[in-house]
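Weekly modeling sync, notes
Attendees: AB, CL, MP (scribe)

Item 1: holo prediction request
CL wants a bound-state model with 3-isopropylmalic acid before deciding which constructs to order. AB pointed out that an apo prediction alone won't tell us much about the pocket. Agreed to run with the ligand included and paste results into these notes for async review.

Input as submitted:
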Amino acid sequence: MTTHSLLLLAGDGIGIETMRETRRIIDWFQQKRDLKFNIEEGLVGGSSYDAHGTPLTDETLAQAQQSGAVLFGAVGGVKWDDLPFHLKPEQGLLRLRKEMQLFANLRPATVFDALVDASSLKPHLVRGLDILIVRELTGGVYFGQPRGIEMLPDGQQRGVNTQVYTTNEIVRVARAAFDLAKKRGNKVCSVEKSNVMESGALWRKVVQAVHDAEYPEVELSHMYADNCAMQLVRNPKQFDVIVTDNLFGDLLSDCAAMLTGSLGMLPSASLGAPDETGKRKALYEPVHGSAPDIAGKNVANPLATIMSFAMCLRYSFGLIPEADLLEKAVKDVLSRGFRTADIMQDDMQKVSTSEMGDVLLKALEALAFGEF
Ligand code: IPM
Ligand code: MG
C-alpha cells in the first residue's frame, strides 16, 4: 500500500471548522478504502502568529516542502488586522506559494445542477457552467520590487507596488493553461491589460508565441481584464480556460466563483513545476477566506475544503476513483436537499458545518457500499 503524505494547515477562522470536517472524510478513506495517508498538522496564519510570533515558521515551511501535498484552510481575521505587513496572516500563505514555487493556481468554477438557482445570474446563463481560471501565483504585483511605503520630503507618504513579469514566468503558466485546456474544451482566453501596461503587452506576446510554437491546435483568444470581468457576468459559458496574472486572477476568480452561487463551494489547486519523477509540489485550498464574521459558529460550508481534498486525490495522488467518489457524494447530498446557510434555498434542509460532514459521510457509505 502506498502511503501518501499530507500536511494539513487549517489556519484561522472557518478554516479550522471546514478542515475538521475534511479530516473526517480523510479518515473515512483511510478506514474504508484501504488508503494510507501519513498526516501531519501545522499552524499557519494568525494561529501561527499567536503561537510562534510569525505567520509561518521555517519548520512548517520545511514540512510543506517535503509533504506529498498540502491541504490548506484559510487565514486572516480582524484580530491580526493591525499587524505590520510581514507579520500578517496572509503572509503565511504567500510565503508558502512563493517558496514552494506554486506558480499555477487552478480555480475551477462549476455550477452544480442542484445549485443553479443559488447563482445571482439567471439560470440559463449558468446551468452547466464549467470554467477554469488558471491564475499565475508567484509573480506580478504581489511580489514585484520595489514595494513599500516611503516618506516624501513634503510630509506626504508614497505607496509603491510593482507589476512585473519575465518571459519564463509567462511561458510556464501559459503551458499549464494550454495543457489543461487540451483535457477540457480546448479553448484558452488569455487576459491582461496590454492596452495600458507593458507587462500586459509582454504577457500577450509570450502567450501567443507559446501557442503558435507548441499548441497550435488549441483555440486561443486574448481579452482585456476589464472586458473579461464584464463578459463573465454577461455570458460566462463562452469561456473554457482563462489564463491570467496574479492580481487579475485574484479578482476574476472571485467573480467567477460567485457565478456558481457560493464561494463556499469552490476548491483550488496550486501547482509547481514537475520534478524528475513528474511529481509537482502542490497546495490545495478553498477559494473562500477565513470569514471571521461566521467563524466558530458551526455554520460555514465545508464543501470547498472537502472538494479541495478531492482535487488533491486527483492531481497529487492519482487516486481518480476516490476523487470521483467524493465528488459524487457531494453532488448527492446537494441533490438530496442538504444546504449550509450560504447556499440555503426554499424547501431545502439547512445543516450546520458538522451536519454537512455527517450527511456526506453517509453518502460516501451509501455510494461505496450501498448502505444507508
Ligand atoms: C486568494 C486570497 C489571497 C490572495 C489572500 C488571502 C492573500 O484572496 O487566495 O484569492 O489575494 O491571493
Ligand atoms: Mg482572492
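Recorded for review: The chain is about 40% helix and 20% strand.
Action items: CL to compare against the apo run; MP to circulate these notes.
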